[in-house]
Specification:
Helix content: 10-25%
Distance between the termini: 88 Å
Number of domains: 1
Radius of gyration: 22 Å
Structural class: mainly beta
CATH class: Mainly Beta
Strand content: 35-45%
Shape: elongated
Amino acid sequence: MRASLAADLKSLFLLVALAALGGCEEATGPQFLPTGVEIRTADKFLIETAGTSRKVTISGTVVNDSRWILVVNYCGYSLARGGPTGWSDVWTQSCAAVDGVPVEVPPGSDLDFAVTVTQTSSLDLDGGAEVYRLRVPMFLKSAVPFGEKAFALEPDARLSSAFSLEGPTVPPGTSPAP
């Protein structure tokens, strides 16, 4: 009886140790960025007009001062507009139009990014009082004693700092939109 109880306690200890070392992971992933991870942008970006098209280039920095490795995908950025029910996507980058590979951002590193957003039927780039955030396509990666684990981040966890869009401005040597 004592041998059986000792074996059961040993098995229980091993299971708890494996879970603590990262042997288990959440099915949905974290809802917030880990402490030390930030997605920083400027407070405002200027809309440019050339002919009848409008665009804005949003740049920022993913700061990783956490213990995690961040993996930022080369495509899949989206622009979210704030509203009474939260953040809703109004523009999503087409991966077919972008060529690249995912980039790892190790602890203690930063990654600068720039994404050009063009006007669409669901996004009228005319400035105004709206508040926007950029949703960055990334996930967390951790090296654990029993292999690497990847954790998806909930969409709202991947939002940048808030900013406004101002303009439109007309680049030198071009004509304004009608």
